[in-house]
Amino acid sequence: MRLQDKVCLITGGGKGIGAATAIAFAREGAWVEIGDVDTAAGQETAQAIENELGKRAVATHVDVTDARSVARWAADIMGRHGRIDVLFNNAGISAVGPLHEIDQSLWERVMAVNVTGVYLVSRAVLPIMMDQKSGSVINMSSCIAALGLMRRAAYAATKGAILSMTKSMQVDYAPYGIRVNALMPGTIYTPFVQDYIERSYDDPQSAIQGLKARQLGGELGTPEDVAMAAVYLASDESKYVMGTGLAVDGGVTAGKFS
Ligand SMILES: NC(=O)c1ccc[n+]([C@@H]2O[C@H](COP(=O)([O-])OP(=O)(O)OC[C@H]3O[C@@H](n4cnc5c(N)ncnc54)[C@H](O)[C@@H]3O)[C@@H](O)[C@H]2O)c1
């Protein structure tokens, strides 16, 4: 058990990568706290964990853009467990289109969820970890922070910001025994990507084939591929891994020459 009795928070744990990670953390012995705006999805993940492993997960309605909702969540968790060992800042939304077609409200929304959300949840949790003198924070960036992709400039700006924040956060919190790392997934087949494909292409099936062809291994990633990287960063096995962006991208940033 690599996370035995660690208290692990996951934002956006209702679906996709967050849901797979919640299950993977629980299988490693963690107490899992899911915060999601989609209450039903969060509860579904918690129920799946309960069915398999007993009551090790609690789902709470949390909007990462709302400081009060976040502060209440952190306080409730402290009431339940008295400590927080792992924070996975995973919640995120997409924004698709060339920059001049992104209207300001979408720009502000994607910044609010993806960047301000990481700030607000981290701000609520870090003082607790500082008191404990331990903790692991995992921020969800993307391979798009290292690689240009079509029609994604606004989204890419948020993921670049998260990678940069991660490195400077690591410098500030290392003296407190806190590690801060980022995940940089490639194309992972989740509701998020399904939605993007359906909204962007007339022929979603051929779009999926095109995306697969871009991967060195010829396949899209699964939520579990990223979840296992999150388990590693959450666990003490990664105790010497600090301030890094870990690519889980099927080689897409490694390059392709034919
Ligand atoms: N799927 C990919 O290919 C991919 C690649 C790189 C990075 N990512 C990142 O991984 C993260 C998860 O992506 P996914 O594909 O699993 O997405 P998803 O849409 O399947 O799940 C995201 C979850 O976040 C929740 N959420 C959205 N806004 C929220 C808010 N304001 N407060 C709390 N919860 C909120 C949603 O309700 C949902 O349950 C995102 O940050 C995304 O940018 C995804």
From TrEMBL:
Keywords: Oxidoreductase. InterPro entries: KR_dom, NAD(P)-bd_dom_sf, Sc_DH/Rdtase_CS, SDR_DHRS6-like, SDR_fam. Residues 6-186 form the Ketoreductase domain. PROSITE patterns: ADH_SHORT. The keyword Protein biosynthesis does not apply. NCBIfam families: PRK07231.1 (NF005559). Belongs to the short-chain dehydrogenases/reductases (SDR) family. This is NAD(P)-dependent dehydrogenase (Short-subunit alcohol dehydrogenase family).
